[in-house]
Every structure is written in C-alpha cells, then in structure tokens.
User: Which sequence fits this backbone?
C-alpha cells in the first residue's frame, strides 16, 4: 500500500448499523471499522479497508434524476456514519429498487449478517 493510500485510509473511522429484516424488526447489528491501523468490530476489517480503498465514492447517493428499475431487493437497511478519507459520512442504504440494490451491492462487505 502506498503512503498516500495509507494516509487516506488513516482518516477512515466508520460506525455501521444494519437492520437485516428492516428497521422496525428485531435483530439490529452494529459494527465499527477503522483503517490504518485496521481495527473495529466488523468481521474481516482488513479486507473491508482494502475494498473501500478501491472504490472512488462508496457512499455517494443515487442521483435524483436516475431512472431505476422497480425491482425490490428485500427489507434490509443500513446506516453508515463517521469519517471516510477525512470527510464526514452519513449514508443510508436499502434495497427498495434496482439503483439502491446496486448501491448496496457495491459496499455489501460492510453489512455483515444482512
């Protein structure tokens, strides 16, 4: 890993909340993830940090003018808060349509147990 990549990841500290059966159902799971040094409670933290480093904008929302398929992916929801690459993050994920399923799948390694 380059010095630049290590510096960028060092400013990554996330709190991840996952609702495997939807937000109004029991079974909520919470994890933390820190990168460089790797730590936290998320299973496979080192792998998650490596995968995050490869994604340009992992927490970007679906553009408002995007046409999305009406394919429901399930009740799962997740919330990621904290800092990524030195910037504040507050991103909600769900699987309510094709765009959101694709967005979820891009970072599904963060959603252990969902």
Assistant:
């Amino acid at each position: 890993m380059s010095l630049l990549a290590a510096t960028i990841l060092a400013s990554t500290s996330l709190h991840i909340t996952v609702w495997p059966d939807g937000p109004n159902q029991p079974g909520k799971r919470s994890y933390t993830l820190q990168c460089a040094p790797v730590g936290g409670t998320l299973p496979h933290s080192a792998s998650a940090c490596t995968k995050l480093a490869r994604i340009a904008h992992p927490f970007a929302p679906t553009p408002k003018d995007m046409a999305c398929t009406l394919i429901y992916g399930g009740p799962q929801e997740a919330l990621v808060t904290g800092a990524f690459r030195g910037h504040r993050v507050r991103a909600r994920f769900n699987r309510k349509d094709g765009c959101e399923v694709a967005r979820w799948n891009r970072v599904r390694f963060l959603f252990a147990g969902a």
Notes: The mean pLDDT is 90. The longest strand covers residues 12-19. Strands lie at 12-19, 29-35, 77-84, 87-94.
